[in-house]
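Shift notes (night). Ran ATP-grasp domain-containing protein while the centrifuge was going.
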Amino acid sequence: MQNILVIGYNNRNIVCSARRAGYNVCSIDAFRYFDLQECAYASALLEHKAGPKLIELDVFKTKAQMVAFGLEFDAIVPGSGMEMFDYDCFSCNVLASSPDNRQKASNKKYLSKRLEALGIPHPKRYFPDEIDAIEYPVIVKPASSFGGFFSRIARNKQELLSIFENLCSLDNRELDLEFMEETVVIQDFLEGIPSSVSLLSTKKEALSVAVNEQLIGIPWLTRLPFAYCGNITPFRNEQAEEMEALAEELVLDFKLLGSNGVDFLVTETGPVVLEINARFQGSLDTVEKAMNINLFEAHVGCFKGEIPSKPKTDCFAARGIIYSDRELFIDRQVLEVILDEKGADIPTQGTSVEPDVALTSLFSCTSNREDAILSLEKRAKRINTFIQCKKDR
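Came back to this:
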């Protein structure tokens, strides 16, 4: 196997991992970052509509893009946003779990029911027709989505109805509780530390490669309260082993293959499962840096029934994703400031970044967590200060 096509919302980390593993990689994604284009054999733009739904692929256009690359692909790898990806439409192999298993794992309603059946701790769930029985605060999020962009907290009934109206407007609908029951999840809002477990799995076994601390809604990275802002790997916590065991149980129960992840909340009473990511995760960079492993190569091995030994930690690796707080044109000056920080997800000169969209990623790899965070914060401040000064001129 030599030629790989990656299709997803943001493919940079998958494409670069595959390139390091020695593959020819083409990409169809929504950003076509500068560093993705350097790693990829060729790339094309994934057209998508912003909203609280997973991306629905235009099969005919995708096939035309594949032909334009001029390669015979040995395999397709779906990335973020492709949980609804139906690979029956394509003739080449797809290195992913079955569409049915991926969709079940990604649907928060189905997951909640399955967690309840397995006796695994998870936030209490409510239905829209139970509004008068809800105990506030609750968090409201689309049943199928990614990144936390559309998650909102409701502290009373009025706020809950306002959130419903906002989500309906994104789908051009009037407020309809039956529609909301199918499209949103309402759960108890719990306090804790966001975290995740990155796993590799075959049909017979699962391996927890790393436990990661998640950076969610960090003020010096984003103004969105629930936006995913990166990771720190490893996450040293007394609940880590329990999270690993629960994550392994879940990926085997859902019959997931390859690289997958499970999100947790570390609470005072123990780990609580939040969701399953049936795909490569945003933590790929920090896991590879901290654990000295190539996750793409390990992912491919899983489909041959091979799983590696558990890797050892080399350092504390951190990734911080900076979101633009305004529409920002990427001129030469902005690009040079970003390049000076030696990060990833580098926007292309001459393009524009919309408000609340990821601008770039920063990395650090140190001997302790505190230095890793401090390094990210200093570098993010330099970029944000330059952008603010540019605006004020």
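Residues 20 and 84 are 28 Å apart (CA to CA). The chain has three domains: 3-96, 124-188, 193-392.
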